[in-house]
Amino acid sequence: MEFVRHADKSFEWGVQKAAELGYEYVEPMVHWGRELLSEAGYFHSVSMLDDPLRIRRACEKHGVKLSGLSAHAPLTKPEISVEYLKQAIRFAAECGAPVVNTDEGPKQPWTTEEEDFVLMRYSLMEAALVAEPRGILIGLECHQQYSKTPDGLDRIYNLVKSPVIGINFDTGNSYIGGQDPYAWLEQVVDRLVHLHAKDIAIEQSESERGKVTGTAVGCACGDGVIDWARVIQICRNAPRNIVFSVECGTIEQAERSIQHLKPLVEAAD
Predict the structure, then answer these.
(1) How far is the C-alpha of 87 from the C-alpha of 127, rounded, in Å?
(2) What does the pLDDT look like over 61-99, one tens digit per residue?
(3) pLDDT for 42 beyond 90
(4) Which residues does 175 contact at the CB level (< 8 Å), separation at least 6?
(5) What is the per-residue pLDDT across 189-219, written as a single tens digit (0 to 9) for each?
(6) pLDDT tops 90 at residue 119
(7) Of 28, 80, 157, 206, which is least surrounded by CB within 10 A?
(8) How is the chain split among helix, strand and coil, in percent rounded to 5?
């Protein structure tokens, strides 16, 4: 749903636009409390104080399904992430989203790495205990200081042994962080539950690769550096069907993305 972030429109408008562009799935972003722009209909995020059926009804009206919820909470800050993720999981179960996506978030400046992993284990355990009886998957994304490398993401994944914890792989974040996205995707494909289809423009690659751990949104899929046919072939080895949740910044980019990706997916069938 990031493709409508600059359109100054509501969640429902964004779902309708996604359907018009030909998307079969959407990944809504949820937040706590009340926020002026979304309450006024100028932003696509949905408050978890709203009825979860608001999301389900909008999707049913326009004939699209839910791939998951974007519910990023800093796992290193349990005072935020524990209750936020637990509420997001309950919200997902009621609105019909199979996956809740998150990452470790920015860390406190005064905690050590050892302390951070204890805090993350606490947060993930609390979330998993709510997700397991509801059958909701938790997708851990490569995005921040620890998950920017394959070993770091694996270390977070291994903190809690639970069948509901998996990987939400972000093609753009893995690349812009300086990693080989294809080798990394092959390493996690057996644990893959969701995928952020994010491409990186050549100009951004040249200026930022290896200097940042992630990026807010990418360019249109097909306009950047990612080999999407290769990504699709790797995902064919996943144990479950994987939704490519396109992550770009404008409606026009979303349209070009689906025009590029759809023929590649169909050719791989």
Answers:
(1) 9
(2) 999 999 999 999 999 999 999 999 999 999 999 999 999
(3) yes
(4) 181, 200, 205, 209, 225, 226
(5) 999 999 999 999 999 999 999 999 998 899 9
(6) yes
(7) 206
(8) 45, 15, 35
CA distance between the termini of the chain: 26
Res 48 pLDDT > 90: yes
CATH topology classification for 2-268:
TIM Barrel (3.20.20)
Q: How far apart are CA 109 and CA 221, in angstroms?
A: 35
- Whether residue 177 is predicted with pLDDT greater than 90 in this model: the reply is yes
Strands (E), the chain: 25-26, 30-31, 46-47, 65-66, 69-74, 99-103, 137-141, 165-170, 192-197, 244-246
As a whole number, mean pLDDT of residues 4-27 equals: 97
User: Is the CB of residue 99 less than 8 Å from the CB of residue 140?
Assistant: no
* DSSP bridge partners of 47: 31
- Whose structure tokens read 């938790």? 138
* Residue pointed to by tokens 């962080």: 177
Beta bridge partner(s), residue 71: none
Tokens found for residue 150: 């394959």
